[in-house]
Amino acid sequence: MSNPLRLLIIEDSEDDALLLIRELTKNGYDPDCERVDTPQGMQSALAAGAWDVVVSDYVMPRFSGLAALRMLKESDRDIPFIIVSGNIGEVTAVEAMRAGAHDYILKGNLARLAPAIEREISEAENRRKRRQADEELALLHKTLEARVVEMVTDVRRKDQILIQQSRLAAMGEMIGNIAHQWRNPLNNVALIIQNLQLEYDSGTLTGEVMHSDIREAMAVLLHMSGTINDFRNFFREDKEKREFCIKKSVNSAMALVAASLSNKNIQIAIEGNDEVNAIGYQNEYAQAVLNIIANSREAALERKITDPHIFIRITVENGRSVLYIRDNCGGIADEVLPKIFDPYFTTRAPDRGIGIGLYMSKVIIEQNMAGHLTACNVDGGAEFRIEV
């Protein structure tokens, strides 16, 4: 069966063109040909059809092989271009190949024409397949980039939601802590006011007593105002990383929950010097510490630990700050331990937490401050290790 071949011939001699067709027919091709010998004719032929191969004479009265090759290149089509000439020197042939011709054949050796066309059509098909594969790969890469951007955006959006939920949970926790911090001072202010009224009603209120009671009440109110400032500063967002003292950050966190822990008979012990520093966000670090403390407090309450303690130790290991937070509240079940830093994982009742505190601590320490947060069981309790 003959192989169909769309052949564009650039040739001024009709006889030479017929010789080309005859040679190809003899070698099993069924050429569908058009012959042109001017730039205008070639331009019209390129616009009119899709050609498998272009065969061109080198020198013609109104055209040339190199001019035809340039025209084909300018059309941005990958079509094999073969020069067939009656007399072409080695230097001229090299020049044509450098210009982009795929092969050159002497008219006296047309037996090379069919194999050359077969080879060049095969290579053109391979180039087409490579281009298609490259385009598909580029499209896949672009699609993957878009999916990665979408996934990263989605993860960030979810993290922002978790952060917001964590902040809301922390604010609710802080409101409870404020209540514990203010309960005794408010009782003192109420007693002072009642005492003033009793002394006034009994006629024993003197200017000295009144001024003394007012000073005492104002001192209590100033203490309460300072507590509000402590809470407000704690929730203030850190704009940039700074060097901060670990012990100072821990103390600021403990000041917010001391009354709450004391109310539940949970003892806190802190050891470590004031010279251990880290680079990061002090308020976020304190938030991570509070989340871990809250985890120990809830364990103490759920398990009804008779003498609950939380031990905090500050040290330096391998040039980095390390904070250990350990409790005596029974530890973490082995099957639960690998999951405690997962978002929304909790073993508590719904009204006791939503499972994002430890996850947010992990995000703060590892993503925001390039540190490490791990947990293990030691001596009948859980121990968290924060390295920054």
- Based on helices, strands and strand pairing, what is the structural class? alpha/beta
Strand arrangement, major sheet: 2-1-3-4-5
Low-confidence stretches: none
Largest sheet: 5 strands, parallel
Strand fraction = 15-25%
What is the overall silhouette? rod-shaped
First-last Cα distance: 78 Å
The number of distinct structural domains comes to 2
| CA-based gyration radius | 43 Å
Order of H and E elements: EHEHEHEHEHHEHEEHEEHEE
> According to CATH, what is the topology of the largest domain?
Heat Shock Protein 90
How much helix, percentage-wise, in residues?
Answer: 40-55%
Assembly state of the chains shown: single chain
Q: Helical region count?
A: 9
CATH superfamily of the largest domain: Histidine kinase-like ATPase, C-terminal domain
Topology, number of strands: 12
- The first-level CATH class name of the largest domain: Alpha Beta
Task: Identify the CATH architecture of the largest domain.
Answer: 2-Layer Sandwich
* Average pLDDT number: 84
Model description:
This protein is of the alpha/beta class and 388 residues long. It folds into two domains: 3-129, Rossmann fold (3-Layer(aba) Sandwich); 239-387, Histidine kinase-like ATPase, C-terminal domain (Heat Shock Protein 90). It has nine helices and twelve strands. It has helices at 14-26, 39-48, 65-74, 90-99, 113-202, 207-234, 246-263, 282-302, 357-368, and strands spanning 3-10, 29-36, 53-56, 81-85, 103-106, 242-245, 267-271, 277-280, 309-317, 320-327, 372-378, 381-387. It has a five-stranded parallel sheet with strand order 2-1-3-4-5, sandwiched between helices. It has a five-stranded mixed sheet with strand order 7-9-10-12-11. Strands 6-8 form a two-stranded antiparallel ribbon. Strand 11 and strand 12 form a beta hairpin. Helix 5 (113-202) packs across helix 7 and helix 6 (207-234) packs across helix 7. The two termini are 78 Å apart. The model has no long low-confidence stretch (mean pLDDT 84).
